[in-house]
Specification:
Blueprint lengths: L4 E7 L2 H5 L2 H9 L3 E8 L10 H7 L6 E3 L8 H22 L3 E5 L3 H12 L3 E5 L9 H11 L2 E3 L3 H9 L13 H7 L9 H5 L14 E4 L10 H15 L3 E4 L7 H15 L4 E4 L4 H9 L3 E4 L7 H5 L3 E4 L12 E4 L3 H14 L13 H11 L12
Parallel strand pairs: 1-2, 1-4, 2-3, 4-5, 5-6, 7-8, 7-10, 8-9, 10-11, 11-12
Helix pairs in contact: 2-15, 4-5, 5-6, 10-11, 10-14
Length: 386
Amino acid sequence: MSKKRKIAVVVASRANYGRIKTVLSAIKKNPELELQLIVGASALLHRFGNVIDVIRKDGFEPTATVYSIVEGENPTTMAKSTGLGILELATQFENLKPDVVLTVADRFETMSTAIAASYMNIALAHTQGGEVTGSIDESVRHAITKLAHIHFPATEISRQRLIKMGEEPDRIKLSGCPSIDAISEIDLSLPANLFDRYGGVGPSFDIKSGKYAVVLQHPVTTEYGAGFQQINETLKAMAMLKIPTVWLWPNVDAGSDDISKGLRVFREREKPNYMHFFKNFSVEDYARVINNCACLIGNSSSGIREGAYLGVPVVNIGSRQQGRERGQNVVDATYNHEDILTKIRRQMERGKYTKNPVFGDGKAGDIIANELAQMPLDNLQKRLTY
């Protein structure tokens, strides 16, 4: 019997997990692979929703955990958290001795993973490379591409960009986005006990009618210091709209404190009886919540990825997703409450869009697992191919 190939996967945030959950399942099922799951960073922290509890509930027991977040949510702590992540992950890779390390997208924890694996001569696989966006994520994503040995882009345009960046075409496998897998075949009707199941802060309200909004707005690291003003413009628009609103807390990036401060000040001052704030949902319940809403608002890539597949009307605010491929379901708004409100009303009036599989059709997990089992690992020396 041949030796199983050990695949170490690092999950570091709620978005991270949503983008890789089905790949974890596919690796577990593949008889040629052994899953080594490392959970770290904000996925371990209570104020970001205890994502590790969701992971365990889904049937994945972490092989190791890594605490690497330096408190402060500013550019300095972001850089320090990246460095601490390298230190801690290098120790775990030394202990686990994986054959391949799989990392996701473009977060600072992803950079830690890529640097540690590369310097330790471990084959690095990367999902969602070749995409164009705003923020520091753009630079991080392309830097990881140059460190990675195996690439799983989500779109054909992204695949072509990787080739233009000098990556070997034979090591680039178009997979689609794994987040689509998790929602492609589930019952998308709303759970009956959403508020009881996830708690949160604020009054409960009837969401069965579909006449509610979902807001998820993260800080933009390259616009650090502007988050408080930016979130206040969104809050002004939602205060004028005054419809039931499911609001999710921002991620751990630099500027998160400014976003959180804006939300807390508004909540205490206005005491809105139409907003409920949540820390986290399961991957499937998040899909159900956005699928049944009147409009998804903010700057999360989920509006562009899952939103296109589901046909959800989306108002994308600001520069965080600038340049990313998208379907017709997305309209852009500036950091201005009047513009945001106008676009929301227009999208709500428009209603559901035709489903558009911009980022794949729900088969990414199996594609990635099969390639991880078969891809040759005998030459880790990278060369520009042009």
